[in-house]
Structures are given as C-alpha cells and as structure tokens.
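Thought: the user wants the 3D structure for the chain below. I'll pass the sequence to the structure tool as-is, report back what it returns, then summarize two notable features.
Action: structure_tool
Action Input:
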Amino acid sequence: MKTVIATCALVALVIAGFLAAGKISRSAREATGSRVEKEFSEWDRKDAPGCSVAAERNGVILYERGYGMANLELGVPIGPSARFMVASISKPMTAMSILLLAEAGKLSIDDEVRKYVPEFPDYGKRITIRHLLSHTSGIRDAYLLRELADPYDQSTNRIDALVQLISRQKGLNFEPGAEFQYNNGAYTMLADIVRRVSGRPLGAFAEANIFKPLGMTSTRFHDDPEMLEPNRATGYHRDSSSWTIPVHSDIGRIVGNSGLFTTARDLLRWQQNFAKPSVGSPATLAAMQTAATLTGGTTSPYGLGVFVGQYRGLRTISHSGGDPGYAANLVRFPDRGLGIAILCNFDDPPLGKMTNDFADIFLDDVPEKPAPPVAAPDVKIVHLTTEELASHVGVYRDPQTDTFSRLYVRDGKLMTEAAGDTFELRPVSANRFVLSGTSIALEFTGDREVHIVGFGPNPTVVQKIDPLKLSPVEMNSYTGQYTNTEVEATFTMAAAESKLVLRRHARPDILLDPVYPDTFQANLVGLVKFFRDAAGNVTGFSIKTDGVRNIRFDRLR
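Observation:
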C-alpha cells in the first residue's frame, strides 16, 4: 500500500573487532556473514527473484551480497552490480536537486510554487517549495486524480500532464502546513521545477550534480522508456505459486517521485554523503534530516526528502519504495555511522520484518531489544476454502475517519484496495490475514469487527456494515451524466440492482454501495455524496478520499 509507507527504520551493523583502519577482523566478518545468510536463506533460490543487501559503517562496506535471481528467464543471479528500480527512494535525490539549486541561489525553498509554475492556482494561501518537499502542501494526490481523468495518449509527456492536472484543481485537501500527507504528485512537480529552473531534466541535473560527484556510477533516473538499463534486475509479481512480470506504464515516463535505478552499494555511497558531505553543505544535509513542524505544533515524521524516526532508541533517517515488481528500503543511523540498503525485485516481500531482522544481527551492543512486531507477517500461509474467504466479504467502516473499505474474493483470494492499488489479504489462520508485502494484519473477531494491527501503536477497529437498501425508483434518481473540469472527465452513473455503477471512459467500471442516504462508498473513489436542490433533484456528487478530498462533479441536464 503506497500510502502505508514503511517508516519503521532499518538498522545497520555494529560489530566488535573494528581495527583502527575501520575494517573488521576475518572471524567477525565470517560470523556476521553466517548470521545474515541464515536470515536470507529463504530468498537464496534459483527459481525465484530475491534481494540485494548491503551495509556499511563510516564508508566501509561491511556486508554485500545478492540472494535469488535477477532474471528468471535467463537464469541470471542477483549480484552486487544488479540495478533495481527503487521507486520512492527517488525522492531524496529529487529533494537534493532542489536544495542544490537553492544553494546556488537559483531559488529559495520558501518561495511560492507559483513563482516557478505560473499556471499553479492561487488558493489564497502560500504554498511553498518547502511544503512540497515535506508533504505538507495540501494539494490533491495527482495519481488518484489521474485515475479519475481519461487515460493518456501514449505520446503524452506524463510529467507535463500531471503538472497540468494538479494546476487545474480548485481546492486543497487541507491548509498548507497543517498536516503531513504523503504526496507523490508533489515530487513530480518538484522534478518539473528542477527542469524549469536549471534548464535540464531532473535526470541530467542529478547525474551532473549528485551521482557523478559521489561516484554513483550505476545510478540514474530512467527517463526514457526506450533506455537500456545495464545489469537490470527484472521486476516480478507473485501470483499464487507462479511469477509474472507486471506492466508498469510509468517507467521511463515519470521521474521525481519514482523512476530511479540504482544498486545497493551506490545507495550506501549516497548515505555516506550525510556523514562526510561532498554534495550539499552541512547545513543543507542537516535541514533534510530535520522533521517538519506542522502549524498545530506537532512534528511530522518527514524532513526534506527523508523520513525521520527511531529504532531501538537510535535515531534513523530512512526512505522506502515500492512499485509493481520492486520493493526497497534504505536506512541510516547517523549516531552510529551505519547504513543498510535492501533492494528486492518482487513487490510483496515482508520488507519491514526482513530489514529489522537483518539489523538486529548487528545490534548486540544496544540494550533495548525490540519486542516482536505485533503484526509481523507469518511465514506460513494457510489454505482457506472459497466459502471461508467469502465469510469476510463486505463493506467495513472506520468510525474515527468515516472511511470505508471493501473486501471481496477474486480468483480464490481475499482482496482489498487502497489508494488505487489492489492488495491481497493472505490467510495465516481462518480469522487472521496479513496485507501482502507489509507487516499489517487484519484480525476478524467474529462480532462484525476487524482489528487492524501493525500500522501505528494502537489497533484500528473497523466495523462491518450492512449496505443501505434502496428501491429501484430511489436508485434511478441518481442515474445520468456528471462532469468535472478539474480532471476533464464525464462519468455516467447507472443503476444495477442494489448498486450504482460509475462508468468511466476507457477504464473499468466502479461499483458503488449505498451506506447512508445519498451517500455511497467504493474503492478508489472513497465516499461519494450526492447533492440535491430545493426541489429534491440530484444536482451532483462529491468524492472524498484521503488523497483527494471533496472534488465535485456536476450533473448534466
């Protein structure tokens, strides 16, 4: 789940026996390697993808190895030179590009976005580059907006199209600076600002100013779909017991929020720059690692391009990434001079547990031993019948946020959706499921409640609800066409038995379940609320999700 961003930190290596030169004795290295290989033994296969793992301390590589296959069709194993698409780990590089332009006096991160993107709307509130960097801008999620808009022509410049889509929005999700809300579109816009200010695309700017100076010779933004990527690890998706290659239409078309190809060792070179800056000033690097303060006085978990947190009492600077076929995690422990990089070429590894287990090997001198994650994914997945899975199907409401989610069975699997992505719920017992690729678990209590654990310090309790029963006449009152100029799309609303069907151009239909009077719920669009005029006629509806709040569609007469 892209909005369930892994902020749990990873830890790196503290090993007794460091010599004055910073090296490790052979016996300590062998003992360390043995323990690591035991942890990663299940990924050390010739018939499955895997991960590249590496760790360093004070610039010295302590451990580096690949597990599994970089390409199943050709039988190529993962080695130290394997390049992975690391998705959102692109964001720190985009942030650094902006900050280098600020150091050069080309911009200030406290400038308004409209200074560099004149078409960006004036909301009557200052939205600055700093807001974009820290995910506190309040702008709507461009990638969810894109799902509401008509599909792009393949020749469209995706970055230009997304910036224009953001710039057509008439409302914000919240007051700038008031909340932290992870926003991929903000970083696509930052990539566009780099281009407008520097005169070069983000990839060329980062190559000249970050990757080349740091010796990151195997790193680049993949900004051309026809570009060859040497030593590329193919991304895979697990479907039951087989592997498939997922289609990712944005690779080579959008960078900034994603699009970076790199190796584990190059990412450790990037991390070492925080300890001994050669790119960016010490003040700039300190600013990146300082958590933003929200207008209400609380602290965000994010600085400028990196997450700021703790693990086992140690300060951490981290970022994770996930896209179809890939998952990655990167963490630095500034007070220990330690760093870990784990890059995987499949999209559902238990990445949080995997990296914490890796880190724990090297934290013997840290007194605080973490308790096992309450919702860490169980290794053993059990088989449930279709009838057993169907007993959990339904619509569930979070009473704290008035948000809804739907569980359904597809191809013999229990599925759910969030932020436009589909996720499998994998059974570890008849009433406990883990969200594929995360440490989040759903526990069905049997009394129409589900406890969601592993996402935050306390369980989230959601309740199964019975959909509202509406007559055919009531259902037909909502049918018709609705349009919105912000996404430049027109939808058709049709009735189908107990549901409404939202039909989009060249995209799958969306089924809406009635939950309250004039209020429906569905995956992707969240809460759909209809409006009526004084005569009781339906005049339009609004969509409310976490990423896109209160965007209105007007009924065509």
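Final Answer: Structure generated. The chain has four domains: 26-89+217-360, 94-193, 386-465, 472-555. The longest strand covers residues 314-323.
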